[in-house]
Amino acid sequence: MSPVLEVKDLRKQFGAVEALRGAALCCPAGEVTALVGDNGAGKSTLIRCITGVHPPDGGSISFRGEPVRFSAPTEARARGIETVYQDLALIEDLAVWQNMFLNRELTGGFGPLRWLQRRRMIEETQARLGRLLVNMPPVRAKVRRLSGGQRQSIAIGRAASWGSALVIMDEPTAALGLRERGAVETLIGNLRHEGIAQLIISHDLEQVMRISDSIWVMRGGRTIAQWRTKEVDRTQVVAAIAGGAA
User: Fold this and answer.
1) How far apart are CA 246 and CA 236, in angstroms?
2) How much is the pTM?
3) Higher-confidence residue: 111 or 188?
4) Does the domain made of 3-242 have the CATH classification 3.40.50.300?
């Protein structure tokens, strides 16, 4: 399948520190791509360069076959790339539907007279999340009343509903219980069936082996190994992360 995202020889330096020294990555449509590596391997810097937080110093990024270099995350989002960070970026005192349309509020009116289209946003939230989530919480419920798994699902569902091409997730099931982790993995499977490319950063190798289609390993700012998941075992992945034979 043609890649939605392709990264080649990406480089990034912060003063004397070379955070990226030749990172590569490929994310096909309708697949779950896992990015793994120890802390400090360069995973977060790579994601920030892809999404426009940091400008890369060298290398290339292609999105849907076109060379891109986003100067801000808003530019990446405008092209259909959404990122779910570990802090989820949900406002606890707002309802689910309000978080869904945060900074994207729908308004009506004429000229300077504008008002929020509350009913339309509630209905669209119900429709968008209902398509993806198995056990969806009430869209009028405040986020602070939701469980950790529900919050994670809402954050991912929000990203998927706006991210038409690629959803990037940073540790999507960290600190979740077994049942909540299963619900998020079901959602990831639903996104795969929707044809959305997903890039998942995770330290949970058992989960990576279970849900991913391909695995890319970073160490010392470089991409040092990549496999189709069905063609590799966990021992090989651990060895590559730790610096043994890949």
Assistant:
1) 6
2) 0.86
3) 188
4) yes
